[in-house]
Amino acid sequence: MIRILIAGAAALALPGCIAQTAVDTAVKVATLPVKVASAGVDAVVTTQAEADQKRGRRIRRQEECIGKEERKARKQGREPDYERCEVKD
Hints:
By secondary structure, the chain is mostly helical. It folds into two domains: 2-44; 48-85. It contains three helices and no strands. The protein is rod-shaped, with a radius of gyration of 29 Å. The chain starts with a helix and ends in a 13-residue tail after the last helix. The mean pLDDT is 77.
């Protein structure tokens, strides 16, 4: 808070572009902790969309495996063994 007040007082004492730079720097310093904290939360939390995408990929891999197993079993003249298609995360 004190930094913002000092930057504001300096802005009045300095010429135009230097004052603007000082104010921009003060704003960046004030918002930096918020940006860092939100980036940390984003890195840790899985959104619903990300979870849906992950589940969709897993289902597609399993369906692909089932198709391959069916083709392989038909070629070898046996029943498909779907237990081979247990996809792990």
